[in-house]
Amino acid sequence: MEIIKDYLYLNIARQFESQIRDGVLKMGDKLPSVRQVSRERGISINTITQAYLELESLSLIESRPKSGFYVCYSQKRNLPVPSPSKPPLSALHQLEEDLIDKVYDSMREKNITLLSLGFPAAELLPIAKLNKGLVHAMRTLPDSGTGYEPVPGNEKLRNEIARLSFSWGGNLKAEDIVTTPGCISALSYCLTALAGPGDTIIVESPAYFGILQLAKSLRLKVIELPTNFITGIELDALKNTLSKRRIAACVLISNFNNPSGSLMPADHKKEVVRLMEYHNIPLIEDDIYGELYFGSHRPTNCKTYDESGLVLCCSSVSKTLAPGYRVGWVSPGRFKDQIMRTKLHHSLSSASITQEVVADFLKNGRYENHLRKIRATLYNNYRNYVKTINEHFPDHVKLTQPQGGFFLWLELEKGFDVISLYEKAMRFNISIAPGRMFSLHKQFQNCMRLNYGMYWNKELEKSLEILGMLISKT
Amino acid sequence: MEIIKDYLYLNIARQFESQIRDGVLKMGDKLPSVRQVSRERGISINTITQAYLELESLSLIESRPKSGFYVCYSQKRNLPVPSPSKPPLSALHQLEEDLIDKVYDSMREKNITLLSLGFPAAELLPIAKLNKGLVHAMRTLPDSGTGYEPVPGNEKLRNEIARLSFSWGGNLKAEDIVTTPGCISALSYCLTALAGPGDTIIVESPAYFGILQLAKSLRLKVIELPTNFITGIELDALKNTLSKRRIAACVLISNFNNPSGSLMPADHKKEVVRLMEYHNIPLIEDDIYGELYFGSHRPTNCKTYDESGLVLCCSSVSKTLAPGYRVGWVSPGRFKDQIMRTKLHHSLSSASITQEVVADFLKNGRYENHLRKIRATLYNNYRNYVKTINEHFPDHVKLTQPQGGFFLWLELEKGFDVISLYEKAMRFNISIAPGRMFSLHKQFQNCMRLNYGMYWNKELEKSLEILGMLISKT
Prior knowledge:
- The structure is a homodimer of 474-residue chains.
- Chain A contains 15 helices and 16 strands.
- Chain A is α/β, with parallel strands linked by helices and 474 residues long.
- The relative contact order of chain A is 0.15.
- Chains A and B meet through helix 5, helix 7, helix 8, helix 11 and helix 12 of A and helix 5, helix 7, helix 8, helix 11 and helix 12 of B.
C-alpha cells in the first residue's frame, strides 16, 4: 500500500514537472490548490501535498504564505537532445587506451572533481549500515567467511537477487543466478564463455569503454551500431546487421545507458529479444543502472521478455551500495554451465564476506529504503546539473534527458575538441570523460559524459560553472 | 635473533629425524643426552631441548623419566617415491572436466572427509585475529572500504608483500606488485595477457588442473613435460622443447608443487630462468605454497634469479590465511603494464576491505607467527599421514616425500583404477583427487593426490585407514 502511494505522488509530481519544463506552466504561474487537484483527480489531499513538497524540494515551485504554490523555476531554454549516432562503417578501429588511462589516473589524484567517473560518491552510500552488516556477517557466516564459496556464490544472496527480479517482471530462482566479483567480471565471464578471438560482437554507439576494453582483451571484433540518445540502439540497424553478419553476441545496456543515458522502451526490448531468438544469438545485457530510475516504477529489461534463455543479464551493487565490495551477478539463462565453468576457471569464487553483507542488506528491506534515497539524490543532482548547464553553458550545447542512472551526455558544436577541453579543465582540477573514449571510431570528439552521482554542493556547482566558462571561451 | 634460534632447533630436529627415518637410529635406541649434544655441537642446552621437544611432539622420540630420550617411531618401511612422469607425446588431449566437477561437487556435501581438496581446514586459520582485523579495517579504511581500489591494489598490502619477498631473496618494491582476487586470478591475468588462442604453453606433468582448465578456457595448447616428484620439471625435456617449439609461456609451481609435492632445487630454478632468458619466453610461476616449508628456511623461487623481468610470480594468502578473502598478487616483472590492463579490463579491482585486513595482518608480524604454527601443523599432519599410510596401505604404494605444502601423491600398482576407488571411497564419505584430473593425457589413472591441510583427529585417521583398506581389497 505504502509503495503504491509513493508511486502516485511521484507520478503527479512528474506530470507537473514536465508541464513546467515544457513551458505549459511558466515562472510565476500559480498552481491549482491542493484541494482542487485532489477533487479533480480523486486523489487524497495527502498525496497531492506530498507531490507539491516533492516539487518544492526540487526548487521547481515555491509556497507563498496564505497564497499557494507558484512556479519558481525558469529554464532559460530547452536544450536539444543529441541526434542519434551514426558510427562510420570504416574498418579503422582504435581503442583510445591512453586517453582512458589518463582519465582513470585522475581518480588517484586528490582534490579533483571527478565528473569523469561512473560510480557513486561515498556520501551517497549507506556506509554505517554496511559496517553493521559486516560485523553481523563476521559473526554468523561459517568460519567468518574465510572459506571458499561454492562456485554459484552465496545462496542467500542469490535468493535475494531472485526476489528482487520480481520488480522488473523477472521470475528468477536462486539457481538462475551466479554471483560474480562485480558487474565487469560478469561481462567478462559472459564474453569469455560465448565469444572467441576473431568473433564479432554488436554494441551501442557510444558504448561503455569497459566493454570495448574487454572485447580488445579477448580479441573480438566490434560493430558499433547507430544509437538513439532517448531510446537506445536503432532497431533497423540491429536487424540489418544480424541478418548480414555472423554475430557471436550483442552487448547492450538497456536501462539508463552508460554513457548515452538512453532507456530502451519496453517494445524495443521485446523486439530486440525477438530478433536474438530469431537469429539464435545470445544477448549480454548490462542492467547495472536499472534500479536507479527517476520515474514511478522500475523499467523492465530485456531479460523480462526472454523466453528461450538467450539473455544473460548482468548487474551488481557497485552503483548503489559499495563499489569496493565487488559483489555482482549474472542470470545466464541457458548458458549457466558455461558461465559457472568460466567463473571457476578464472577466479574460483568471489569474496565470501561482502556477498553475505549484501545478502543481509537486501534481505531486510534496507535496500529498498536506500534505493529510494539514492534515486531522489540522483534526480536532484540531475536537475541541478541541468539548471547549472542551462545557465552557464553556451547555446550550442545539446544535452540528453536521462530518466535514471548516473550520466549526462553533452554534445558541443561540430569541431569542438573535448580532449583539449579535458586538459584545460584538469588545470582547474576538474576531470571529464571525453566522448572519444566511448567508441573505436573517430567520433564523439565534440562530446563528453558527465557523472552526476556526486555529492551536490557549492564546490561541485562551481566546477560545472568553470567547465561551462571553459567551453564558452573556446 | 629469535628467528635464528628457531631455525637452529628445527635444523637439529630435522637431522635427528632423517636419521630415524633412514634407520640410522632405530626404535628403542637412546639419543645422546641434551648436555652431550650441546657440548659436541657448541649449541645452547635450551636449543637442543627445544629440538628434542619438537621430536617428541612428532611422536618420533619419547622421554623416559630419569633415563633420557628414546626413539619410539617405527616406520614399517620406506615407501618408494614415484618415478618421474613420462607424459605420452600423443596429440590426444582431454581435460577430464566431468571428473573435476564431480570432485568439486563433493565439497558442497556435508560430512565428507575432503582429502581431495587443496585448501586449509578452518581449524588451521587465525579466524579470531582476522575478525579483529576486519573491524579495524572497517574503522580505518577510507569510506570503510566501500570505494574502488586503484588498479594496482591496496598500497599497504603491496608494501608488505614486497617486504615479505626478502625471505626468498626477492628485492621487490610495492610498485613491483599488482594485487589480484586470489592466485588463480593472477594466473588468469598472466595467461590472458601473454598467450592467445592457438598458442602453446608448457606445464609440469602431473599439472594442477586449475592451470589446465584456464588453458582450455583461453584455447591454449598445452605441452606436459616429464616431471620428477622430488625435483620438479625435467630440465632436459624443458631445454629440448624450448629449442624445438614456439612457446608462449611456461607455467610452473616451483615450490611444494600441486599435486606432485616436488621442490625444484635452487640450481634448477636458476637454470630454468636462464633457459627462459635465452629463449626470451615468460615464466609464470605459482609460488602459493612457498611459505609452507618444513625445513629451516624458506626456499627461493624462480623470481629470485630473475634478472630480466621475465618471471611473473603469483601467490596469495588462500593457503595460509583465508581462501574466502580472495587476496592474491603477482609480481609481473616487465609485463606490469599488460597485467594491470588485464586486471582493469576483466575485474576493475579486487575487494577493498579484505586486502586491508591482510595488509594489517602482514604488517604486525602476526603472519610470521601464524605461519610458524601452520607449518608445524602441516608437518605433523604429513607425518601422521605417512605413519597411517605405512600401517594401513598395501605394499605396492609409492609415496612422495614433500618438504612442504599440502599434498601427498600416491602411486598404486599399474592397472589400479583410482576413479572407481573414488566412487567406493565416497560411499564412506571420503573424497580423494584421482590422478587423471592432473593431466590432459590418459595417465595417472593409478594415482591420487591427498590433501593433508586438514585438522588431524581420530576421524581423519579412520578415513585414511578405510581408504587403505579399500585399496587393499581392490
